[in-house]
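Subject: Sanity check before I submit

Could someone independently write out the C-alpha cells for this chain? I want to compare against mine line by line before I put it in a report. The sequence has 309 residues.
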Amino acid sequence: MNKTITTIIPFYNCGNVICGMLDSILAGTVLPNEILLINDGSTDNSVAVAESYANQYPFIKCITQEHSGVSTARNLGVKYATSNWISFLDADDYVENNFYECIINAVSDDSFAGSVCGYFTESNGMSTAYANPQAEIMDSDALLEAMFTNDNVRGFLVTRLFKTEIIKNISLNTNIHICEDLLFQTTLLTKYPDLKFACVNLPLYHYVQNNSSATTNLNLFNGAVFKYKPAFDEIRKLISKSYVDDNYNSILEYSMYCLLKEYKNGNKQVLPQIRGVQAELKTIQPTHSSKRRLAYIIAPIIFSHLSPS
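---
Independent answer below. Compare away.
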C-alpha cells in the first residue's frame, strides 16, 4: 500500500506563528512527502517565511491565491496534491513529533478511508487532552455521529487523514466560513456511507485557541444571521438526525452564556446579539431542554441578573 502524504496548510497573515507548525512537522519521526503552503493573499511577512522553508526543503511548495478564505485555499491544495493521502493542518497550531507516524501506520490496508486521532486544546497556558478510547475503528455513521456528540472527536479536519481518491471530487463549500470542516465531512460521510476510519487513541494535534475565535470576540452575527447557521442549514439538508439540532443548541446556549456574561459586566452593545440568539433558540427543538434554555428563550436579561456571576 502506498503511504505517501500531502499536507495542506492554508495561511493568511500568520508570519509570526507558521514557523511553529512547520518546525513541529519537520521534527517528526515520519515526514509528509509534500507540504503545500497555500498563501491566501497575505499582506504581512507570511509569504517570505513560507518561501524560506520552500527554498530550504524541496518537498515544501508555496502556492499563492487571492484572498478568498480557508475553504478555497484547501480546495486549491487538494487540486495540486500528488500523494495517496491528504492531511489538512492549520498554520497557527502544531503537532506532536509522532503525529504522522501514528496516523499513517493506523491505516494498515487499502480498506481504510483514513484515520482519526486525538488532540490537545491550548488556552491561556493550559493544555487539555482529548482522545477516544471507546473505538479502534469507526465507520461513516459512527464518525458522523461522533463529530456532533463526542468532544474527543468533534468535526476537526486537522485530526484526520484522508485517502486522496475519496476526497478529490468533494469540495469545501466556499460560501461557508464557520463549521466549513464539519459540513465538508458531513458531505463526505453521507455520500460514502460505508467508509472505514482507524482511530488513534492518542492526543497528537495541538489546537491553539486564540482571541480571534467568534465567541471570544462576541461577534456572532453576519448582519442578522447567526454565524453558525449557514453551515447547519446545509448539514440539515444532508442528514436528519436529532444530534445535529442538539449540537446546534449547545452552540447557541454557550453563545448566549458568553453574551450575557459580557452584558452583565456592563457591555450593553451585545444586546442585539442576545436578542438574535434568543430568536434562533426558538427555531429548534433539541431532545433535552433545560431550565437554563427556557430562561434564555423567555427572559435572558432577567435571568442574567438573577444568576450568580
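---
OP: Matches mine. For the report I'm noting this point. The two ends are 57 Å apart (CA to CA).
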